[in-house]
Write a structure and sequence with these properties.
alpha/beta; Rossmann fold; 6-stranded parallel β-sheet; 11 helices; 40% helix
Length: 280
C-alpha cells in the first residue's frame, strides 16, 4: 500500500517503532514511538515541521483506520491531528481505508471524518456505514490492486497457503478455536501447506499451534515482492484471515476461502463468490 501512496520525492511517511521500508529513503521515514502520548506529540511536531517543508497533503492510507471500537484516546488523537492539519492548511485525505464499527453515539469519529476533504473506502460495508451518517465519500478498490505483479503461474501449483491475524486470535480464544476448526475442515493434510506471516512479530505463534495438527506444514515470512510472487505463482488456493492475502489470491486468480470477524473479508469473498466463514 505504501508503494502506491509514496510516489513523489516530497512525500514523507509516518511509521511506528521499527517498521522501515527499503523503497522509501530513510530521511523520508518518520519513525513514531510506541508510547501513545509521545507519539501524539511527535505527530503534532512533525505536522508543523512538514508545513515549513512545503508539504500540502496529509493522507491516511489503507487499513481499518477508523472504528468506534478503538480506544477513546486513539479517536481523540485522530480528531486533534485532523483539526491541527486543517488549521495549518493541509488537505486531508483518506485513501482506500476501511471503516470499523461506527456507533451512532460516536461523535468524535463522526466529527473527525466530516473534517476530511476526501475519503475513499475499499469495501461496500464501509461505504454503507458512511452513507448512514451522511459522510461524503467514494467507493474504490484496495490499493494493492494498483501494484504490478509478475504473474507467471507454474503448470501444476502445489501449495496451499494459509494466513492468520495473530493479534486478534491471541486476544479472543473463541475466535482462535473457530479458526482452528475452520482449517481442520478446509485443509487437506496430504497437501503441502505453507503458513505465511503477513505481520512479522504478530502471526508466528499460530504456527506453533498448527504444526501440532498438520505435519506437512512450513512457515514462510516474505521479505519482498519477489517472495510473494514465488509463493502465489506456486499456490493452488489461499485459506485464512489476512485481508491482503486474499486480495493477492484474487490478483493471481487463485481460489480462496476467508475467515474473519471483519466485513471487508466477507465483502471480498461475497464479491468473488468464495467461501466465507464468520468468526463471530
Amino acid at each position: 500500500m505504501l508503494e502506491v501512496l509514496y510516489v513523489e520525492k516530497k512525500h514523507f511517511i509516518f511509521l511506528q517503532d521499527l517498521n522501515t521500508y527499503q523503497f522509501i529513503p530513510k530521511n523520508k521515514q518518520i519513525i513514531l514511538s510506541k508510547s501513545p502520548i509521545y507519539r501524539t506529540l511527535q505527530k503534532f511536531y512533525y505536522l508543523i515541521y512538514l508545513k515549513f517543508k512545503g508539504v500540502k497533503n496529509t493522507v491516511f492510507g489503507g487499513g481499518t483506520q477508523f472504528s468506534s471500537n478503538s480506544s477513546r484516546y486513539t479517536q481523540l488523537d485522530i480528531l486533534f491531528f485532523v483539526i491541527l492539519a486543517r488549521a495549518l492548511g493541509f488537505k486531508i485525505k483518506a485513501e482506500s481505508v476501511g471503516i470499523g464499527s461506527f456507533s451512532s453515539k460516536n461523535k468524535i469519529l463522526y466529527i473527525a471524518l466530516k473534517l476530511f476533504h476526501n475519503i475513499s473506502v475499499r469495501d461496500l460495508t464501509s461505504s454503507n456505514k458512511l452513507k448512514s451518517r451522511k459522510i461524503i465519500h467514494t467507493l474504490t478498490s484496495d490499493l494493492v490492486y494498483k501494484l504490478k505483479f509478475n504473474i507467471n503461474k507454474v503448470k501444476k501449483p502445489k501449495l496451499t497457503l494459509i494466513t492468520a491475524t495473530g493479534p486478534v486470535l491471541a486476544m479472543n480464544k473463541s475466535y482462535l478455536k473457530k479458526y482452528l476448526d475452520f482449517l481442520e475442515l478446509n485443509l487437506d493434510r496430504k497437501e503441502e501447506i505453507v503458513f505465511v506471516v503477513f505481520q512479522k512479530g504478530e502471526d508466528e505463534f499460530i504456527f506453533d499451534l498448527l504444526k501440532k495438527k498438520f505435519e506437512n506444514i512450513n512457515m514462510i515470512i516474505p521479505e519482498s515482492r519477489d517472495d510473494l510472487e514465488k509463493l502465489y505463482n506456486n499456490s493452488k488456493q489461499v485459506i485464512g484471515m489476512r485481508y491482503h492475502s486474499l486480495i493477492l489470491a484474487d490478483i493471481f486468480k487463485i481460489s480462496f476461502k476467508g475467515f474473519s470477524y471483519d466485513d471487508k473479508v466477507k465483502d471480498l469473498c461475497k464479491k468473488n463468490k468464495m467461501l466465507f466463514t464468520s468468526a463471530l
